[in-house]
Amino acid sequence: MTPLHQPSKRRTNYPQEVPEEALKLQVREPTMDDSRDKLLLLLLENALSSLGFKETSKSSSPVVDELSMHETNQLLNRMPPIQKELDDHPQDVFMRKEKSLKPPLAAQIVPIEFPPQVQFEKPKELKEEEAKISGSELTILRYSPEGELDRSVPSITITFSQPMVPVSSVSNVENENVPVEISPLPKKGGKFKWLGTRTLVYEANYRFDMSTKYTVSIKKGTTSQIGGVLKNHFSFSFATPRLSLLDSLPGVSWNGHMPVNEFPVFYAEFDQDIEPTTVVSFISTPFHSTSLILDGTSSNPLLKEHVKKMMKDYNKRNPSLYKAYESKLESAPHSRHLWFTMDVQNHNLVNA
Questions:
Q1: Is the pTM of this model over 0.85?
Q2: Greatest Cα-to-Cα distance within the chain, rounded to the nearest angstrom
Q3: Which of 1.25.40.10, 3.30.70.940, 2.130.10.130, 2.60.40.3710 is the CATH number of 136-239?
């Protein structure tokens, strides 16, 4: 509701005495409910103007006087009281059902201390199993992986013949009694954990490094929880997949069509991350020594500029070769490629 104001009043100055010969009219101030308000106002103003009546202001805006706080409260008090909303009594609207009774207890609650202080006797089956292996030799039942592998290795698993740690949560025995040594350890690290009391797992944080041979060993004299002893040193080894060449430029398709001394720029792409300075030392040619072009990676803008400058003439001479080099400069896999050159000065050699 907008603030209340007093009704507007049109203020005009009328002569105190009206001449007798003047036309006497009975007029009233028009309201908004009049159907012909605009026409009536126009006629009235013309009649008053002809009799000498003049308005004090030519402005059409009504004069509005703001009500005081006391006057506003008096008007509001004349209104009927506001009824309460239905939300004040939701139970009268929704007619909620009474809560159901809880089911009766089927057993008696006996408060006991946890963990209990009482030492319980071992089950008969467990005693018989311990009696069989008590005093026996500790052995390795299973282990993996082993040998040359064609896949990545996320973990190593070793299972012993006897319990190596007490029965507890995994976190409590995570680093307890770990008799296994791994050489070398993965570059990104990892951790041991026990699955049960007999199986030990080493999980790499990422995976075991590629092109690497690992040796896992357990020392002689390792003892179990029940006294079993490993009489002999135990070890096994495995090797992760070796580095393989996936693509190269110039390839076999350009054999005999590209003078090496004119364009001695070579590209090699592998299936694993490499260190260019290390890999280039293993590249051998029947001609002369090889070396990296700058740091050997396409991400180096100076290398891109150097290669494009050398191959600018091949855009017309050999468009397919030009596009192949250009593609590798833009989309070579990160950390899995290298660019190198060969010292072929004063030799008219052809790519073989």
A1: no
A2: 146
A3: 2.60.40.3710
